[in-house]
Design brief:
There is one protein chain. The protein is of the alpha+beta class and 456 residues long. The protein has two domains: 165 residues, Creatine Amidinohydrolase, Chain A, domain 1 (3-Layer(aba) Sandwich); 260 residues, Creatine Amidinohydrolase. Helix content is 35%, strand content 16%. Helix 5 crosses helix 6. The longest helix has 24 residues. It is elongated, with a radius of gyration of 25 Å.
Length: 456
């Protein structure tokens, strides 16, 4: 990278363009979300900070990604920004942002500035981020409570508490100020759990790009290739499809590495006869996909591999069948668990009978994780898993993964033909009023589809 110099250029009147592909997401949707929050928190205010810039090493920064909550409410992709929503008077929506700076924009790209924050991102008023400590006490006046993620960043906490303290010192003037600080999760994260039509459009595009990546890997994989070669192809396909980034670090596990749940070194040379487990999804317009497929490096499953694969697929079908309004993630997991446990008994990997095997968790060495998690802006998305004292009921608009697996380590005391076999099948599932839709169902999944996609 170049060292910082002194060159500058005039900005003129050219407006800064939003730097993120928001797809079908309009400014009006972000404003509507802010209004929904204001209705939920009245009387009170909500304060959200942007994600900080993180140094990779020395003066080199990590790729920047905005905080999901901040982006959800603003569509604003710049660091050093703060959003305040306030229900007491005008303005109700205030953004603090970086000022436009010809020299810095020469090096780092355009900024929206104060004018752009109002014009392009729906803020009713905007200020320089340098004014935050001065303006915040004034803007929090007459707000009886504050929704803010206290405890996540000490320096930010100090600024917020300092603003409240300034107001507290004015009690002789009958000033109302926040006397309680509440978590933002109960407001924002519950909103994020139910996806709008435009959010689902972005998620479908993320799945389409992810589909292309998985198909490409099935097509090109050969014994002798390295896992990192497949990872590179994935990343290339994602970026070529318009994805900003992978939704998480891709997992490419061949042979025994397929039995490691979060294998990320991706450095093994693929051998003839290996299964290759690929857990990878892209992010598009700040929305994630999360898909796992397992396929044979040589193009054909061995009988032992096929028996394990068919078991996992059968368990996934059973879990997806349970995915509907009124069901719970616990019920989805139990459906997958029962099928897998019965199959492990049939394959001779554990002892029966089924009821005892389930009660004693004899399946645990081979299926050790849960079946589902929420999916949205974050790959492990926000939203409570328990509500009103028990597992929460599914509702239309929720998106979750369904991802059972069977993992037989090389050291397992079982028939050698099963050792080193790891299979996981994962799809992204939308809960609908009628039941559910598998958003990633087009990606080859049946044994016959996978072998056809791998055909040489």
């Amino acid at each position: 990278m170049e060292a910082l110099g002194q060159t500058s250029i005039p900005l003129g009147d050219t407006p800064a363009e939003p730097m993120v592909n928001t797809g079908d997401m309009s400014k009006d949707e972000f404003v509507a979300r802010q209004n929904r929050v204001l209705e939920s928190i009245h009387p009170g205010a909500l304060l959200v900070f942007s994600a900080p810039v993180a140094l990779r090493n020395n003066d080199v920064e990590h790729e920047y990604r905005q905080d999901s909550d901040f982006y959800y409410l603003t569509g604003f992709d710049e660091p050093e920004s703060v959003l305040l929503l306030r229900s007491a008077g005008q303005p109700r929506s205030v953004l603090f942002v970086r000022l436009r700076d010809p020299e810095r924009e020469t090096w780092d790209g355009p900024r929206a500035g104060v004018e752009g924050a109002v014009r392009d991102f729906g803020a009713e008023q905007a200020f320089s981020i340098a004014e935050l400590d001065v303006k915040l006490p004034e803007l929090l006046r007459d707000e009886p409570r504050l929704f803010y993620a206290l405890g996540r960043d000490g320096a930010r906490d100090a600024r917020v508490l300092r603003a409240i303290q300034q107001l507290r010192q004015q009690t002789r003037k009958a000033v109302v100020f926040p006397t309680s600080i509440a978590e933002t999760d109960g407001v924002l994260h519950e909103m994020r759990l139910l996806k709008s039509a435009s959010e689902l459009s972005l998620m479908r595009r993320a799945v389409e790009i992810t589909d292309a990546g998985h198909r490409e890997l099935m097509r090109v994989t050969r014994p002798g290739m390295y896992e990192y070669e497949l990872e590179a192809l994935l990343r290339r396909t994602f970026r070529a499809g318009g994805s900003e980034r992978p939704a998480y670090s891709p997992i490419v596990g061949s042979g025994p590495n397929a039995t490691i749940l979060h294998h990320r070194r991706n450095d093994r040379r693929i051998q003839d006869g290996d299964l290759v487990l690929v857990d990878a999804g892209c992010e598009y317009g700040y929305y994630a996909s999360d898909v796992t497929r397992t396929y044979p490096a040589s193009g054909r499953f061995s009988p032992a591999q096929a028996s394990v694969y068919e078991l996992v697929l059968k368990s996934q079908y059973a879990a997806i069948e349970k995915t509907r309004p009124g069901a719970t993630l616990e019920q989805i997991h139990e459906a997958a668990l029962e099928v897998i446990t019965a199959g492990l008994i049939e394959l001779g990997l554990i002892e029966g009978p089924l009821e005892a095997a389930l009660k004693e968790q004899r399946y645990k060495p081979y299926f050790m994780h849960r079946t589902s998690h929420w999916l949205g802006m974050d790959v492990h998305d926000v939203g409570r898993y328990y509500k009103d004292g028990g597992p929460r009921l599914l509702e239309p608009g929720m998106v979750l993964t369904v991802e059972p697996g069977v993992y037989v380590s090389e050291s397992a005391a079982v028939d050698p033909k099963f050792r080193g076999i790891g299979v996981r099948i994962e799809d992204d599932v939308l809960v609908t009023a009628e039941g559910s839709v598998v958003m990633s169902d087009a990606i080859p999944k049946t044994l016959e589809e996978v072998e056809a996609a791998c055909a040489r």
